[in-house]
């Protein structure tokens, strides 16, 4: 039975397994000397230890996954249609863009007034082709949506093109480096977020960050989210720029009215400078839906805190209105305050710009004029009187002729007026001289007072030299009645030495 068992054939190998190519062990070989089945040899992969360090297999897997994603989502018929639409829209835009530009340059720009409107028309002419491309892409989005096709790629192109057009318009129309940077750092991020389809998620996140601001009349809790804050800033920026533009137009119209006084024009300009930004802020809050009714509860406390913190600012603001209303000073007046002499060039809500003869602009707060007073050289009349005092020695005989000569010599200065005529008055008999005061008039104090006074003094000096009149200086004679004997001997010895000098 044992031999029969050994003579039996081994069971057949599974049909799906490959036949072994290894040689069978020779008969009679002990089992312990027979070689065990060798382990499969590890075939080294191409590469180096750097692959193990940086994870080459993981990178290849990620690249393959990305390629599969691109094949499944991007390399589709819908994406191919959108790409074709994007490139196809360039052709009609390139055809109609130059014609639109010619239409704007010939029909619209010449009729626009100079200023912002003229710059806006020229900017639209320069952006005619991108605007035409934007129009055709919007039509393409509408057609694709109506036909049930995807519009993600075309919408992304529209977002990026819109951002570029906005930045170019701001740069060409406003011509402000600040607003150009604001447009650049605002438009491009929004366009990028919209192009990648994450703008809606960001909006939801901003709406979730909200601040409770009170309860309305119906008892409903009112909140103001971070998105509302950003919307308010954006809308207020646009409305503030529009308010400045309208303000400049109204000021131009006001300044063109000759019937209005300078003070009243300045008053209207100051009201517009304050009123229009406030209106822009209120309208911006209304647009974003700010609940003003919730502010009634703590509005008084907030107003009190703001009033205390801005007390000096409010004081300057109302002092400016007072100065303009009572016409104490106005642009163009020549004034002197706290030793600063100059003429008023501008009156703002907080300060008055005073330009001196040195070319410097002194910004004096409005309440300074109310509290400390001001010397207005041209309040009612620009004709002002100036003084040139001088003295002559007691040896001068013809004092009346000297006074007439001084008056005639003052008239040789161009800025000295003939009417009222100069007047030279004898003021006093002083200790060392006979003192005169030459008074003369000028009508252009804005050109300076020290320079014309200097010219008059020079003319008087030349006149006194021509007449041979001495200009005395203070001097004292000292008479010694009693002194020590030694001091008298020293004085007498010095006098003898001065009277009889020795030869070299």
Describe the structure.
With 504 residues, the chain is α+β, with helices and mostly antiparallel strands. Among the domains are: 123 residues, no CATH class; 87 residues, Orthogonal Bundle (Helix Hairpins), CATH 1.10.287; 48 residues, SH3 type barrels, CATH 2.30.30; 84 residues, Alpha-Beta Plaits (2-Layer Sandwich), CATH 3.30.70. It contains 17 helices and 10 strands. The strands form 3 sheets. A 5-stranded antiparallel β-sheet has the order 6-5-4-3-7. A 3-stranded antiparallel β-sheet has the order 8-10-9, covered by helices on one side. Strands 1-2 form a two-stranded antiparallel ribbon. β3 and β4 form a beta hairpin. The radius of gyration is 48 Å and the shape is elongated. The N terminus is likely disordered.
Structure, briefly:
This protein is α+β, with helices and mostly antiparallel strands and 504 residues long. The protein contains 17 helices and 10 strands. Among the domains are: 75-197, no CATH class; 228-314, Helix Hairpins (Orthogonal Bundle); 329-376, Roll (SH3 type barrels), CATH 2.30.30; 384-467, Alpha-Beta Plaits (2-Layer Sandwich), CATH 3.30.70.
Helix and strand topology:
Blueprint: H1 2-7, H2 49-54, H3 56-74, H4 77-108, H5 116-126, H6 128-146, H7 152-173, H8 177-195, H9 199-208, E1 210-215, E2 221-225, H10 226-255, H11 262-287, H12 299-309, H13 311-325, E3 334-337, E4 340-347, E5 351-356, E6 361-365, H14 366-372, E7 375-376, E8 384-392, H15 399-410, E9 423-429, E10 434-442, H16 450-467, H17 485-499
Antiparallel strand pairs: 1-2, 3-4, 3-7, 4-5, 5-6, 8-10, 9-10
